[in-house]
Amino acid sequence: MMTVRALADHPDVVRRRLRVLAYCPGQVFGTGLAADLSLARRIAWRAMGTPVSAPLRRFVPTLNTRRVAGVTLGRLALGEVVPPEGRTYAALRRGQLTWPDASELARDDRAVTTLWQDSAALVGLDP
């Protein structure tokens, strides 16, 4: 979030009128991202990628299907969804796109600037 905020305010990004967003698809089972989990967890993760998880989505707002997460990401990338003014964080909750506030730390302008400058220095860029 801090990197997205810093990048969104970067003069080159502003000049080119680019949109910078962070996207949280929530928990999306069946994506192959659980390959390094223990066998028991991999089995549970794989099962959650089936219709078995449908009832849980009523109670756990961060559970989303691959289809909904992918379609939403595509709509964001293609500019079909325009974020509310000043929003750079999109989160999928119960299959619906939301625009929650970032954490307190991610809203700290000084911390954002420090992270950007330190990151640039670490990779040899001019901040």
Name the descriptors:
127 residues, alpha/beta, three-stranded mixed beta sheet, 5 helices, globular
Our count of helices gives: 5
The helicity comes to 25-40%
Structural class: alpha/beta
Overall shape: globular
Percent strand: 5-15%
Low-confidence stretches: none
Q: Indicate the mean pLDDT.
A: 88
Give the termini distance in whole angstroms: 18 Å
- Within the largest sheet, what's the order of strands? 1-4-5
Radius of gyration, whole Å: 18 Å
Descriptive account of the structure:
By secondary structure, the chain is α/β, with parallel strands linked by helices. The chain has one domain. Helices cover 39% and strands 12% of the residues. The chain is built from five helices and five strands, in the order ααββαβαββα. It has helices spanning 2-8, 11-16, 39-48, 66-77, 109-122, and strands spanning 22-24, 27-28, 63-64, 89-93, 96-98. The strands form two sheets. It has a three-stranded mixed β-sheet, covered by helices on one side. Strands 2-3 form a two-stranded parallel sheet. The longest helix is centred in the C-terminal third of the chain and has 14 residues, at 109-122.
